[in-house]
Amino acid sequence: MAATRAPSTVCASCRTYLPDAAPGIASHHSVTGDIFPFALGRVATGKRGTSACRQRRPVPPGPCALHSCPWTPPQVTGRHDAAPAAGSISGEATIPAGNILSDAMRGTGGCRMTENSAITARGLRKNFKFQPVLDHLDLTIERSETIGLLGSNGAGKTTLLKSLLGLLRPDGGRSTVFGELSTSLSPENRARIAYVPQQPGQFAWLTGKAMLGYVSMFYPAFDGAYAEELADRWKLALATPIGVLSPGQQQRLSIVRALATRPELLVLDEPIASLDPATRIGVIDELSDERRRRPITVIFSSHLIGDLERFCSQFAILTNGRIAVMERVEWFRNHVRVTLEGDESALESLSIPRAALIRKIRPGRRAAVVERNDAAALSAAPPPKIRISIEELDIEALASEWMQ
I want to staple 74 with a disulfide (CB 3.0 to 4.6 A). Which of 19, 119, 246, 355 is the partner? Predict the structure, then answer.
């Protein structure tokens, strides 16, 4: 016989159950889209939501009428009152986190990939106002890899990350996380993921300590002692209301919250841009230590390539809606830029075998990215009527060649 539901509270606007153990939490709208999408089991549309929904009312006792499943404690919550549509991205249907769901409801869709694949994307497309942002993008990230996602402003890095995690509906193609479709992740896989958005939107009226306590109810592996240790090390005042904290301190709190869940997949979208140099170094060092302690897959989007070089195993460069190149850090270090100048007709007919990139700067001038040994051979025997110069560049300058 199904257990009866204990009295609880519910958001009167969207009917999502809220835990009584979190006093003062009147609405989840300000955070479900970006901060806790996986723990709450809510598939978001990318909209932040409304802060006007602040009513609470009791839920009468009784079994779950929809699934006839046992009630679960309020530590793991989800919506029961409307049928959850597997694969829906409407933002109105959610997967009840913590409840026993059938394989069909988990919506794996037969898209199981290899055991070593943490994330895959095949033919991913996303347009905004008829402008393509992602254009048939393909990507595979193996487990335990640390990927630095690079790209110019407006290249679509945030769009890509949200699409990979199921926070945005793709216009075409598909992506998977741990073998499941991103748009219908099971509660078990949601609990394995942590996401730090570019703009942390957190409960401004709560203290940092209260917010971390609230988050801990949704993540079985949440490590409160580790969170307090990080906060102390990064000089983060957990007793201060979040709304009073500076943007840099709020970003530190967002990173602490993500790391304390002990995720297997950590996705960071420009998390250190607003941090001071000492804290930036501390974050990178902590991520490096965490990777040595246990297997963890990290996708780290940032323009601070020098910081990423100390931590990442690979760089992926997003340009023109696709991953233009994805190689290990050593690959970039072994390449140089070759500048070729001369007659335009000679340059048009010139072929450079094994060149990773050939870019036209202006008529009569080209830039090519080639391996160091190939560049030396080309310089020793230059083509007729073409002048060659070789430049040793750091990874930041070399990667920028794909962003021109």
Answer: 19
DSSP assignment, residue 349? H
- Which run of H or of E encompasses 369? strand 365-371
DSSP, res 207 = B
Residues 178/115, Cβ–Cβ less than 8 Å: no
Nearest-5° Cα angle at 134, 130 to 136? 110
DSSP 106-135: HT-TT----TTEEEEEEEEEEEETTEEEEE
pLDDT digits (tens, 9 = 90+) for 205-249: 999 999 999 999 989 999 999 999 999 999 999 999 999 999 899
Of residues 369, 333, 353, 326, the one with CA closest to residue 137:
326
Provide the 10 A C-beta neighbour count for residue 197: 22
Which residues, 6 or more positions from 117, have their beta carbon under 8 angstroms from its beta carbon? 140, 141, 142, 143, 176, 179
Q: Which of 154, 146, 74 is nearest to 290 (CA)?
A: 146
Residues contacting residue 345 through CB under 8 Å, at least 6 positions apart: none
Tens-place pLDDT, residues 131-141: 999 999 999 99
Query: What is the reported pTM?
Result: 0.75
